[in-house]
Write a structure and sequence with these properties.
The complex is a heterodimer. Chain A is an alpha/beta fold. Chain A folds into three domains: 34-237, Rossmann fold (3-Layer(aba) Sandwich), CATH 3.40.50.11540; 248-332, Ubiquitin-like (UB roll), CATH 3.10.20.600; 337-424, Up-down Bundle (de novo design (two linked rop proteins)), CATH 1.20.1440.230. Chain A has helices at residues 27-32, 37-43, 47-57, 69-74, 99-106, 108-121, 136-151, 182-189, 218-230, 232-237, 271-278, 303-306, 313-318, 337-351, 357-374, 380-393, 401-415, 417-424, and strands spanning 84-90, 124-131, 167-172, 213-217, 248-255, 261-266, 269-270, 288-292, 301-302, 310-311, 327-332. A five-stranded mixed sheet of chain A has the order 6-5-11-8-9. Chain A is globular and about 70 Å long. In chain B, strands 2-1-3-4 form a four-stranded mixed sheet, covered by helices on one side. The model of chain B is unreliable at 1-19 (pLDDT under 50). In chain B, 44% of the residues are buried. Chain B is 35% helix and 10% strand. Chain B folds into two domains: 21-92, Orthogonal Bundle (Arc Repressor Mutant, subunit A); 104-182, Glutaredoxin, CATH 3.40.30. Chain B is of the alpha+beta class. The radius of gyration of chain B is 18 Å and the shape is elongated. In chain B, helix 1 (34-43) runs antiparallel to helix 2. The chains are: A alpha/beta, B alpha+beta. At the A-B interface, strand 3, strand 5, strand 11, helix 14 and helix 15 of A face helix 2 and helix 5 of B. The complex binds flavin mononucleotide, iron/sulfur cluster and FE2/S2 (inorganic) cluster (FES).
Chain lengths: 436, 184
C-alpha cells in the first residue's frame, strides 16, 4: 500500500501490506498477521543455511548500492570467537527517500524479526538500529515494539527459548546525513564524529568496536522474514525485467506529482505506467520535466528517457542513472533546473564531513558557482569549471558523498543545458521564475 | 554536519546570540539521579563507555534544552573523555544546541524535494510571523527560533517541519498561523 494512499491494484504489497494498519504495530497484531514464525524457524536452522536461502532469493541491498545480501552475510567468519555485530541502517537522509520511515512506523515488529534473523545468520548477539535523530515518531514506535518483544522473550538472552542470545537496541543519531555511510555510522555508534573510515579493512573483518560487522538497510532486513516464509523461489520469481533484480521494491515518490507517497512494485515494472497510473501523473496543468529516480545522489534523466525505463538496477543503468535507494524526485515544467540543482549542491556542501579536500572544497565551490549562475552572474566558463571540478571529486575520496554531488549536477547540465545558458545570457526562460 | 564549508556560509546556527552562561552549573548526571540511572542503563548495552556519548548528550539536552561547555565537561568526566573531545563530537552533529534556543525550536526542510513545492515560502512566513526576522535568531519574546534544515526524510509530505520533538508534515504558508497558535 502506497501510504498515505490506498494500495493501487498494480502494486505488490509485501513490505507495505500493513502500512496504515495501527493494529499491525502491536506484538499481538503482528503475530495475528503471521509474525515471528520465520524467526522461530530460523533460530533452529543453521546460520549458513539461512545465508544460502537469502543468496538464492536474489535479494540485493536496498540502501543504495544493491550489493547481494546473502553474499555480504557470508563474509562474516562464523566461529572465530569474536563478538559479531549487526547494524541496521535507519539513517534515511538521502533527499527523496522516505520508505524506511514508513516501515518503522507501521511494521516495527517486521523489522525486529528481520534484524533477529540476520543477527543469527551472521553469528551476532547484538544489533543496533541506528535511527536518524529527527525521526522522533519512528524511534518511539521502535522502542515500544522492542520493549514488547523483550518482555515476551522473543529477543533477549534466550530468544524464543532457543538458548540463542539476540539483543537489539535503538541508537539515536543527532543530525548528519553522512552517518548513513556505513563506516561513519559505526563511528557514530562508538561515540565519535561521523567521519567515514578508509577501507580496507572492511566491516566484515574489522567494523564496529573493531569487530566483524554487517550493515544492512531497513528495507533489506524487513524483506528477510518474507523470504523465509515464502521461500527463495517465490522472491526470485518477482521479476519483470533483468533476472539480476528480484523481489518487490518500495519507491518513495516526491516533488511535483499528483500523488506523492510510497509505492511497492515488482522489480522491472514500467516506469511510465508507474508515474502516470500509480502516482497519478503531473499536477493539474503541468508537465513532468526531469526525474532523479534513486535519491538525490544519482544522475537526473529527462521525462522522455524515464518513460522508457524498466524499474530495476539494470533498467535504470541503461539510461545512465541508478535505482539507488528508490527515492523518485520529480520536477515539472514550472521548475528551474539550475535552481533545484544548486539547492542539491548546497545539500552536499552542508553534509560533507570535510575530511577530504576534494569533497570539502569541491562541494562548496560547486554550490557557489551554481548559485552565481542562478543569480544571473554566471559565465560559460563556469559550466566547464563544474565538469572539471566533478572530475576531481569523483573516485578520489574516502567515501562517495563527493561523487554524489557531481552526479545530479553534471547530468542536469548535460540534459538541460539550455536553461543554464539562458540564465548566463541573461535571458530568463519563459516558463521559469528564478527567485533565489 | 554543522561545520559547513565557509564558501556556502555554514550552518544557520552560527549566527545565534552569544554570551549565554549557565553559571553556576548544576550537574545533570549526578550518581543516584534519574538521568544518571537512564545513562547507566544505556551504557550496559555497549562494550565501551564512549559509545554512551551520543545518548548522554541527548539526556543532557532533554534536561537543559542545550549543551553548555560545563555540560560537555560533565559528560566527559562521566564517560572518561576530555571536554575538548566531547566538544568535537557535539559540534559535528546539527541537532545538539550549543547555546539556548527559543521555547519552540522550528526546523523547516528546504532541500530540493520540498523546495520545488514551496518550502522557502513556508520559511519566510515563519520568520515574519514569529518575529524572529532572521534564520537562527531567537524572537525578542524568547519563544521561537526558526532554522532551515536539510532533508527530514519525509519528502513526499512536503513541507515537513519539526517543532521541538514534534514532526508535522504537509506544512503550507496557510497553516503557519494555526501552528503558531498551537505552540505559543
Ligand atoms: C553518504 C552516504 C549516505 C548513505 N546513507 C544511507 C542511508 O541513509 N541508509 C542506508 O541504508 N544506506 C545509506 N548509505 C549506504 C550504506 O553505506 C550501505 O551501503 C548500506 O546501508 C548497506 O545496506 P544494504 O546492503 O542493505 O543496502 C549511504 C552511503 C553514503 C555514501
Ligand atoms: S568524501 Fe566527503 S563526506 Fe566522504 S569522507 Fe571525504 S569529506 Fe567526508
Ligand atoms: S527534501 Fe524535504 S523532507 Fe526530504
Amino acid at each position: 500500500m502506497g501510504y498515505p494512499h490506498k494500495s493501487h491494484p498494480r502494486e505488490t504489497p509485501v513490505l507495505s501490506k500493513y502500512f496504515g494498519d495501527a493494529e499491525a504495530r502491536t506484538l499481538e497484531g503482528w503475530k495475528a498477521r503471521g509474525g515471528y514464525k520465520a524467526l522461530a524457524q530460523a533460530l533452529s536452522t543453521d546460520p549458513v543455511a539461512i545465508q544460502n536461502i537469502v543468496k538464492e532469493s536474489g535479494l540485493r541491498g536496498r540502501g543504495g548500492a544493491g550489493f547481494p545480501t546473502g553474499l555480504k552475510w557470508s563474509f562474516m567468519k562464523l566461529g572465530d570467537g569474536k563478538p559479531h555485530y549487526l547494524c541496521c541502517n535507519a539513517d534515511e537522509s538521502e533527499p527523496g527517500t522516505f520508505k524506511d520511515r514508513e516501515i518503522m512506523r507501521w511494521t516495527p515488529h517486521g523489522l525486529i524479526e528481520g534484524c533477529a534473523i540476520a543477527a543469527h545468520a551472521i553469528g551476532a548477539e547484538t544489533c543496533y538500529i541506528y535511527i536518524r535523530g529527527e525521526f522522533t515518531e519512528p524511534i518511539a514506535v521502535m522502542e515500544r515494539a522492542l520493549a514488547e518483544a523483550r518482555a515476551a522473550g522473543i529477543i533477549g538472552d534466550n530468544a524464543m527459548g532457543s538458548g540463542k542470545k539476540v539483543n537489539i537496541w535503538v541508537h539515536r543519531g543527532a543530525g548528519a546525513y553522512i552517518c548513513g555511510e556505513e563506516t561513519a555510522l559505526m563511528n557514530s555508534i562508538e561515540g565519535r564524529r561521523g567521519n567515514p573510515r578508509i577501507k580496507p579493512p572492511f566491516p566484515a573483518v574489522a567494523g564496529l568496536f573493531g569487530m566483524p560487522t554487517t550493515i544492512n538497510n531497513v528495507e533489506t532486513l524487513a524483506a528477510v522474514p518474507h523470504i523465509l516464509n515464502n521461500g527463495p523461489e517465490w522472491y526470485k520469481a518477482m521479476c519483470l525485467g533483468s533476472p539480476k533484480s528480484n523481489g518487490s521494491k518500495l519507491f518513495s515518490v516526491c516533488g511535483n506529482v499528483a500523488r506523492p507517497g510510497n509505492y511497492e512494485v515488482v522489480m522491472g515494472f514500467s516506469f511510465k505506467e508507474f508515474l502516470y497510473d500509480l502516482c497519478g501523473g503531473p499536477l493539474p496543468g503541468r508537465k513532468f520535466k526531469a526525474i532523479i529516480p534513486g535519491g538525490s545522489s544519482v544522475p537526473v534523466i529527462t521525462i522522455e528517457e524515464a518513460e522508457q525505463v524498466k524499474m530495476d538496477y539494470e533498467g535504470f543503468m541503461e539510461f545512465g542513472t541508478m535505482l539507488g535507494s528508490g527515492g523518485v524526485i520529480i520536477f515539472d515544467d514550472a521548475q528551474s533546473m539550475p535552481k533545484q540543482l544548486a539547492r542539491l549542491a548546497r545539500f552536499y556542501a552542508h553534509e560533507s564531513c570535510a575530511q577530504c579536500t576534494q569533497c570539502r572544497e569541491g562541494t562548496a565551490w560547486m554550490t557557489k558557482i551554481l548559485e552565481r549562475i542562478v543569480a544571473g552572474d554566471g559565465t560559460f566558463e563556469d559550466l566547464d569549471t563544474i565538469f572539471e571540478l566533478t572530475e576531481s571529486m569523483t573516485g578520489k575520496t574516502i567515501c562517495v558523498l563527493s561523487d554524489s554531488c557531481g552526479a545530479p549536477v553534471c547530468s542536469g547540465i548535460t540534459r538541460f543545458r539550455g536553461e543554464f545558458e539562458a540564465l548566463i545570457k541573461g535571458k530568463r526562460s519563459s516558463t521559469v521564475t528564478v527567485t533565489a | 554536519m554543522s561545520h559547513g564549508p565557509s564558501a556556502t556560509g555554514g550552518a544557520a546556527l552560527q549566527g545565534a546570540p552569544h554570551g549565554h552562561h549557565d553559571d553556576p552549573y548544576v550537574p545533570v548526571l549526578t550518581p543516584g539521579s534519574t538521568p544518571r540511572a537512564k545513562l547507566d542503563d544505556i551504557l550496559s548495552r555497549y562494550p565501551t563507555r564512549q559509545a554512551g556519548l551520543l545518548p548522554a548528550l541527548w539526556i543532557v539536552q532533554d534536561e537543559r534544552g542545550w549543551i553548555s561547555e560545563h555540560a560537555m565537561k560533565e559528560v566527559g568526566d562521566v564517560l572518561g573523555l576530555t571536554a575538548a573531545y566531547v566538544k568535537g563530537v557535539v559540534t559535528f552533529y546539527t541537532m545538539y544546541h550549543q547555546h539556548p534556543v527559543g521555547t519552540w525550536f522550528i526546523q523547516v526542510c528546504t532541500t530540493s524535494c520540498c523546495n520545488c513545492m514551496g518550502a522557502e515560502d513556508v520559511v519566510k512566513a515563519f520568520l515574519q510571523q514569529t518575529g524572529c526576522g532572521e534564520l537562527g535568531l531567537t524572537s525578542p519574546d524568547g519563544k521561537y527560533t526558526v532554522i532551515e534544515v536539510e532533508c527530514l526524510g519525509a519528502c513526499g509530505f512536503a513541507t515537513p517541519i519539526m517543532v521541538n520533538d514534534d514532526f508535522i508534515d504537509s506544512m503550507s504558508v496557510e497553516r503557519v498561523p494555526e501552528i503558531l497558535k498551537k505552540y505559543c
